[in-house]
Amino acid sequence: MHSSLLASTTVMVWKALEATGHDSRKIFLRAGLDPDRLHDSNARFNYGAVRKLWQLAMHETQDPCFGLTAARYWHPSNFHGLGYAWLASSTLKNAFQRTIRYFRVVTTDPEKLSLLEHGDVYEFRVDTGHVVHRGLDEEYDLFLTLLIDACRIAHGPNFRPRRVTVEHGPTVCVDRYKDFFGVQAEFNAPHYALFLDKALIDATVPTGNADLALASERVIHSYLSHLDRSDVLMRVMSKLIEALPSGDTSEESIARALNMSLRTLQRKLREEGATYKELLDGTRRDLATRYIENSSVSVSEITYLLGFSEPSNFSRAFRRWTGKSPSAYRASHAVQ
């Protein structure tokens, strides 16, 4: 199964490459992406190709802070109607809530976004644990950076978060994080997150425009209505990832989680040429290889995360998927 991203989000990569003297078109083509589709505001790119684009861009520029660099070139049109709905929101709280509600515009495999209240602080959290295809660390750096930049458009250049946390370890970009955010990023954290002053996030902003925000939402709804048909596969996979550790992965329970009847879910899957059994097996297989490649996750933990009752049951399934035992697969991956 392949997730897709809004093609216009890669314009930031194009412009960052161009600004450093690189041939953006050539690099896009090497990644398997058609640059001409950037002119189509509704176009989408396969996530695997976008991931390759980022890897090529970082290799060509030799910029370890490429996520921070690319964020300089964002524009609201990069995010379809969501970009304009954000900027036209009456408060930053409304803007973050719209991001959570409509993030499927950006990706069919959305991270779990949440706005949590802790006393006088809001935490905008990006939970990467339930996605089928996790982004690169640099992509999450870009996301947090452009969110703060958007806040500064509304509140002025002095806006800064209370705290910034990232999942990855310290990099040579430490000083650039502090220069941009105004605070030192906290590394090796459980989540990517922004901790924001509640009073500022709740305050009405001068850039708010209710008519423009509602018009942008109508554009978003129209776009999502066309996207939803193929999106059902990714939505099922996302719910499966959430449900696997509990072991309750029956088709009926997933249908309930999606607010569908069992018959409706079966019909939608049939229209896509898929079956629930294939999706369950494929999701487990994709997650299993991802977990095995991460040497810090034990086979016992993977057994639990994938909803198997015993490590031996997981090992048999893994051998069926890959032709290798989990330990052999991990060893061969470590050598590569």
Structure description:
This protein folds into 2 domains: 4-211, H-NOX domain (Alpha-Beta Complex), CATH 3.90.1520; 231-335, Arc Repressor Mutant, subunit A, CATH 1.10.10.60. 55% of the residues lie in helices and 9% in strands. The chain has helices at residues 11-19, 24-30, 47-61, 66-70, 80-87, 92-102, 137-155, 174-181, 198-202, 210-243, 251-257, 262-271, 276-293, 299-305, 311-322, 326-335, and strands spanning 4-6, 44-46, 112-118, 121-127, 163-165, 192-197. It is globular, with a radius of gyration of 21 Å. The chain starts with a strand and ends with a helix. The mean pLDDT is 90.
Helix-strand layout with pairing:
Layout: E1 4-6, H1 11-19, H2 24-30, E2 44-46, H3 47-61, H4 66-70, H5 80-87, H6 92-102, E3 112-118, E4 121-127, H7 137-155, E5 163-165, H8 174-181, E6 192-197, H9 198-202, H10 210-243, H11 251-257, H12 262-271, H13 276-293, H14 299-305, H15 311-322, H16 326-335
